[in-house]
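Our consortium's second objective concerns turning raw sequence data into structural hypotheses that experimental partners can test. To show how far this objective has progressed, the report includes one record in full. It was chosen at random from the queue rather than selected for favorable results. The single chain below, 446 residues long, was entered without modification.
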Amino acid sequence: MHQKDLTKGNVFSTMCLFAMPMILGNLLQQGYNIVDTWVVGHYIGSDALAAVGSAFTLMTFLTSILLGLCMGSGVVFSICFGAQDKKRLERGICSAFFLTSVVALVLMFASLILIDGIMLWLNIPVEIVERTRSYLFIVFCGIPAIALYNFFSAYLKALGNSIVPLVFLGVATGINIILDLVLVVVYPLGVAGTAWATIIAQYISGIGIGMYTLIHDHKMRQAFCRFNVKKESLKEIANYSLLTCMQQSVMNLGILMVQGLVNSFGTAIMAAFAASVKIEAFAYMPVQEYGNAFSTFIAQNMGAHQTKRVQQGFRYGVLTSIGYCFAISLVLWFLAKPLILIFIDPQETLIVAQGIRYLHTVGPFYFGIGCLFLLYGLYRAMGKPGVSVVLTIISLGTRVLLSYFLSSISQIGVLGIWWSIPIGWVLADLVGFLYYRKNKRKLLKE
């Protein structure tokens, strides 16, 4: 099985070549989200789009907990691989899989039991309650599949293999799109059809990548054959994973709270927000995935004590991320209306106007979220996931507080929610860069 040692070779090209399959995979996933939104918006209606948009935000929050566990575990895997410590790696695999499995099952059953209370908390309008409930009940059953894919994907990426996760994600995306068209357009099952398409594809990708890894990687096979969860290894995985999990969940909890506030403005604003967020996710998700690749690069080099490569990687990472974000901001500024019209009927003038307003307000500041993803990855790889939690609290805390305060002013309204987002990003960036500058020597020695 192909593995890549990120502690050798040209720093810039090594990071970029490793990141490209991860970025492409994320673009495929966002491409599916856009097709899904287009199908729902054009073949079911704006109410359905509002329902699926709210559900998407909730599922992002729930899966962020699993993603955080897997990302933290991936840091441990990367450090072990960089240090060539095979026994520690094997112990880490067992502990990480145990933790991820338990959390996935708890999340699934808790979500199914509390589904009505969750919708009430999200301020779901009465007219879309039934659609939202039917969609959520089905997609909640796909949580274990999400855990499977992200666990094995994190392991492969930690060892420098970003190609295989891309392949399985690509297959799942293709299946998802085909099933979306079949179950919504050909057989009009409504939002339930999009939900079934999603979880079928998730289980195919999760089980598929798991089987591939077990067949082709002897370290993974040995770990599962001798499955032994050691207390010290469980503690190490927990130290990295739980704080990363907290950072991811706090980030998405803040987004979820903002979604609840958006919902209070009615289905038109909800639909505009749902369409805008899908466009936005497609725009800046490459830089988020670049941040994850950057984190693996830093972790491997920290494990190998290559401090000069860590510093070089950080400089190149910041420059690359900012350059991309400025370019994509320009694209969204000039193409905001055509992009919104992909999902929204031109006759829905209020929804179209609000979508454009959102992209023109938030879009010019994507450099803020780009740098924030790098800072998350940096501190996670350096064994300081607590700093990432603090940055997330600053970013999301600012966003939530400002959103509720500004939107309550009648002259500002929903525009206050839009402006609170980039303000939170920039404040967190300032704190993250200042902390690195002040503590650089100490961080690089640890």
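The partners drew two points from this record. Residues 46-83 form the longest helix (38 residues). Residues 130 and 400 are 28 Å apart (CA to CA). Both points have been shared with the crystallography group to help prioritize constructs.
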